[in-house]
Amino acid sequence: MPTQKIGAVILAAGRSTRQRGFKPLLPIGGQTVIQRCLELFQHRGVADSVVVLGYRGEELRPKVEKAGARAVVNPDFDQGMFSSVQAGVAALSPETDAFFVLPVDIPLVRPLTIRLLLRVLALNKSNEVFLPSFQDQTGHPPLLRATLRSRIATHDGTGGLRRILETASTVQVPVPDQHILVDIDTPTQYEYALTLWQRYCLPTPQEAEVLLDWETKGDADISAHSRQVASVTKRLALQINSRNPGSVDVDLAVAGALLHDIAKGQPRHADTGAKHLKACGFAPALTAIVAQHADYEPEEKSPVTETEIVYTADKLVQGSRLVGLDDRFRAKYEAFAGNTHARQAVLRRWKQASQIVQRVEHACGVPLDTLL
């Protein structure tokens, strides 16, 4: 199958009238907003990126061209965003098979979303528009087939691009990316985006919930177990922080708990789940929890970690119900009657779990059964 030629149109022509600064040049994560938007499409199968300029266009042009993208000026940018859509789409290479459209004020889309949209495009031959969605809300950037170029070029602008998308054959593509809904049109929205950026390498609580269902394909048993482990994890983490404020990252621990079994049923499920999350772009702090939730050796005299809290919660939850640690391992030990090797492995894990649970209980300062 021939490789499809993919383009991207980034809309950066507006005056930013509702924002205190000029949106394309606002800082976020050590870069400017326009740099983040350009970087989103680099090295991800997008061969032709076009940035539509207007207001302060000559100031932006060097930054666009330095990033390897093409700058196109829309002299009619004051007529509305759709005129910039038309200018950008017209400037795309004639060989373009499909293209993204991204307003510059949506700067935090995850690269994973781009990969997922392109994957669906390659498999779906019937639809013209691919809309990313998060919890049933559609966001940016839409991916459009080049068959819509002529319709965009001849449209009179009524209803903007949305009107064209409403009349095209469209499919929603669920993505575990809350940031497709986050814009920076106003100062308040920009401040919220900066807050999200501080934790960008970790899934938001909503993203973790979506990832759980997405990765496990809605498996009810895994979902129920993971949510119960997350509930126990949160109680333990909050108790530890009540005694030693800030010693535990509660959101990180809860995310790790929700996602610890996303590869359950697959070979080496802990390592496999961690690799899945790494491929999504998430931080080692999260992938380590998932990789080590079944077998973990803490450093002696070191502070209790988020990994140990999730490990403990997982051992105290069987299915979706709470169990005693000794009851859990005693049942496993008895199940291997006559299998000396398997029983030795159970005893090793039992001893390891007992040590970790004792460490977590000590950090909590109260018996765990009083918390759970």
TrEMBL record:
SUPFAM superfamilies: HD-domain/PDEase-like, Nucleotide-diphospho-sugar transferases. It comes from the Bacteria. GO terms for molecular function: nucleotidyltransferase activity. Signal peptide: none annotated. Residues 222-319 form the HD domain. InterPro entries: HD/PDEase_dom, HD_domain, HDIG_dom, MobA-like_NTP_Trfase, Mop-rel, Nucleotide-diphossugar_trans. Pfam families: HD, NTP_transf_3. This is Metal dependent phosphohydrolase. The lineage of its organism: Bacteria, Pseudomonadati, Thermodesulfobacteriota, Desulfovibrionia, Desulfovibrionales.
